[in-house]
Specification:
This protein is mainly α. The protein is built from 15 helices and no strands. The protein folds into two domains: 187 residues, Growth Hormone, Chain: A; 182 residues, Growth Hormone, Chain: A, CATH 1.20.1250.20.
Length: 404
């Protein structure tokens, strides 16, 4: 792996750690400072809503300002927003803030976070698009997805160890790590060559129209995944009869670890050796995801829970780089920033709607969440069988392609 990609991935792994750590540390902290579950949910959801708008904007700015400057803005916003959130919780624990003023302070920190951190993913995705050729695009995008998986694994462990020194310490540590990533990136990461349009920027809707299938794919996969994530601990108790808070948490942690390992196997191993066409990655990934959901729905014993999550991890390992590579190959180089912003927005929209619908459907029937996810995923398999997905090998044989 090249030095510039290692530097890029350092920041992305730190970003992934912060996202996973928030649910491990933030939830108990919110109770400790007297916030309700609804208020904590609002704090988390607020940044996702802002991200859905800020990511496309920052993606387009990366085309004119440069990938590195926009990426630095994102890392700086991550460090600032996470640090402010930690200070807010600290003020609550010390009794300096409480009730509505505390809630508003934490909400403000997350809104500032959402505005600025929306620059991270689009700039990183566009950076990879600028520094890979068409044949290597999926492998490069797999590294982006892999960094999130590594962060998801490291974050809870990191938080668990540092929490012994104080409940807010892990949040301070992640903010500091983001600041280190910012300084390293500022000093060492080169700005890639990119093609800048000589005319006015194309309307965002025209760029979006070219990548609609891949935006829908991101919306579906993250909508279903976050719905499952929301109901997982309930399902472990209701479906498999696991009792005791500690045992339920341990079982859920092992299931999510199984999923992360599956994704890493594909992204760090399979796709670095096998240059599969994006269309094939998408069909294979959504088929595996369908299988994983069916294992969760109909598996009679607990081992099927872990097998289902492992299959979902393998699926995500194929789907994430497949969606990003297909979208990147669908537009010319001068539109890479804009499409990267859209690709960062679509999962965020799924994360807004998925949990709400997942909880509602689970109240009707626990299995309906899983079988409904399987149906949606199978529909994506069929969709990607019948639409034309860019294939860099065929484009090379024809001597042209959208990203040329």
């Amino acid at each position: 792996m090249s030095r510039d990609k290692l530097i890029l991935l350092f920041g992305l792994v730190t970003y992934g750690m912060g996202q996973s750590l928030l649910f491990i540390v933030g939830a108990p902290l919110s109770r400790a400072v007297g916030l309700s579950e609804f208020q904590f949910g609002m704090i988390v959801a607020a940044s996702n809503v802002v991200l859905a708008f800020s990511a496309p904007w920052w993606g387009r700015r990366s085309q004119s300002l440069g990938r590195k400057p926009v990426y630095l803005v994102g890392l700086g916003g991550f460090a600032l927003g996470y640090g402010l959130l930690a200070l807010g919780f600290q003020a609550g624990l010390w009794g300096l803030l409480a009730g509505l003023p505390l809630f508003m302070a934490l909400l403000g920190a997350r809104l500032a976070y959402g505005v600025l951190v929306g620059a991270v993913q689009p700039a990183a995705t566009a950076y990879i698009a600028d520094t890979t050729d068409e044949q290597s695009r999926a492998a490069g995008m797999a590294l982006i997805a892999m960094s999130g998986g590594l962060g998801t694994i490291i974050g809870p462990v990191f938080g668990g160890v540092l929490a012994t020194f104080g409940p807010v310490v892990p949040m301070y540590a992640v903010a500091l790590l983001a600041l280190v990533a910012l300084l390293v990136t500022m000093r060492e990461l080169p700005e890639p060559e990119r093609q800048v349009s000589q005319g006015p920027d194309a309307p965002l809707w025209s760029t979006a129209a070219r990548v609609v299938p891949y935006l829908v794919g991101w919306f579906v996969i993250f909508g279903v995944f976050t719905a499952v994530q929301l109901v997982a601990t309930f399902y472990i108790q209701d479906r498999y009869g696991v009792t005791g808070e500690t045992r339920v948490i341990q079982t859920a942690s092992m299931a999510f670890l199984s999923m992360a390992i599956g994704a890493l196997i594909v992204q760090a191993g399979v796709l670095q050796l096998w240059k599969g066409a994006p269309g094939l990655l998408l069909r294979l990934g959504f088929l595996l995801f369908t299988g994983g959901m069916l294992l969760l729905a109909f598996g009679p014993v607990l081992i099927f829970l872990h097998l289902g999550f492992f299959a979902m991890g393998l699926a995500f390992g194929f789907i994430a780089p497949g969606l990003n590579a297909a979208a990147s190959l669908s537009v010319p180089r001068e539109d890479q920033g804009a499409v990267a912003g859209l690709l960062a927005m679509a999962p965020t929209v799924g994360m807004i709607f998925g949990p709400a619908l997942g909880g509602l459907i689970y109240a009707i029937s626990p299995n309906l969440t899983m079988t409904g996810g399987a149906v949606l995923s199978l529909a994506m398999v069929i969709w990607f069988l019948f639409i034309s997905v860019p294939d860099p090998r065929q484009d090379a044989q024809r001597g042209s392609g959208p990203a040329q």
